[in-house]
Amino acid sequence: MKNIETIIKNQKQYFFSGETKSTKFRINQLNELRKAIQRYEPEIVGALKKDLNKSEFEAYSTEIGMLYKEINFAINKITKWMKPERVSTPLTHIGTKSYIYPEPYGVSLIIAPWNYPFSLQISPLIGAIAAGNCAVVKPSELTPTVSKVIYDMFQELYEERYIAVVEGGVEVSQKLLEQDFDKIFFTGSVNVGKIVMEAASKKLIPVTLELGGKSPAIVDESADLMLAAKRIIWGKFTNAGQTCIAPDYLYVQKEVKDELTRLMEDAIEELYGKNPLNNKEMTRIVNENHFNRLSRYLVDGRVIKGGKVDRNLLAIEPTLIDSIDWDAPVMQDEIFGPILPILEFNHLDEVIENVRAHPKPLALYMFTETDQNQEKIIESLSFGGGCINDTLIHIATPYLPFGGVGQSGTGSYHGKASFDAFSHEKSVVQQTNRFDIKFRYPSHKYGLSIMKKLLK
Nucleus: is it a keyword of this entry (predicted)? Predict the structure, then answer.
């Protein structure tokens, strides 16, 4: 591997050659990426098993299959996305034509997290390629087997002057953040996101930050409780709760709390068995530090389901905790693990007040059969995105942009939004030479009076 400065220098030279900008080139590279993922599927699944103990089902459904859909969607839409968009022209600009040209930023840096180490590395890269950029990708050092697979796949797939993989830990990330990239795309924690944004601000590099936060699930008394229970358990405990858009805590209306809790206990047994620690398909906690952090939360409140741990396996049972309030340690930061605190409410206004009192969440999930309550939550609370009567699935459609707001992130991607994330909208006015508007010049006798009429 050449040094980082040389990689970026070579990529900038290659970008300025113009080769990455043609429609044919972009489509070809995405086609090759899809073929490479297909060839490497066994290695990807094996690496996810080794690093996180992900099952083949979870590996394919959350890390691989979605990428095929994204790639195919981009290939089918690139020609349309690339076309300059003609927009209206005001009367003051008579004789002109106005266009917006989508222009690739240039050389992009894409830093991936460890929780979905393959999909969250490749997904933004699809947007970078579609938009005509070169890129340096930085896999997470906390999932080293996946990182090695990405490196091997890209060594076979792309020239380093186009797409390069840089592996390493914190020191490597710091070195990358010192470079003159044209765009930075980061997925990870809020704290590290602040570091990335600070580094980017020193060079005024545009950033997309996909972060996290405490995302609520809310269940009112009108909800279909059986479906709500199963969908909340699925959304919370997928990937052992190590999902940025997982329900972080549950607000349930007092009248249905006991029944919903019982149904969630049943759902845990249905999805993970009576003894989840014996389930060899259950994803583990990424490392001992995170395991220790999560284990400390188990003393908060009252464990009503789960709570057992296996330090040797770095496994924690899907756990429901009751008797929790906002002062508890488990409610201070994003949990990012298989622990679901349960809070109750009497009136929806209580939920709105408490959610507003904290940073804007990345996701929100409302379970209700009442249109009024649905609209009240959507209109009253700011959040990145979410679902009504389900969890997680809003991230899996290329027709919806995905991203946070406030501390949960800035910018969005997926589908057209991925293309936009790696593109600058360049505005161009084409002026006619067939005539010249005289009153625009200060020497025109009636210029000021005409301007006042036109610009009202």
Answer: no
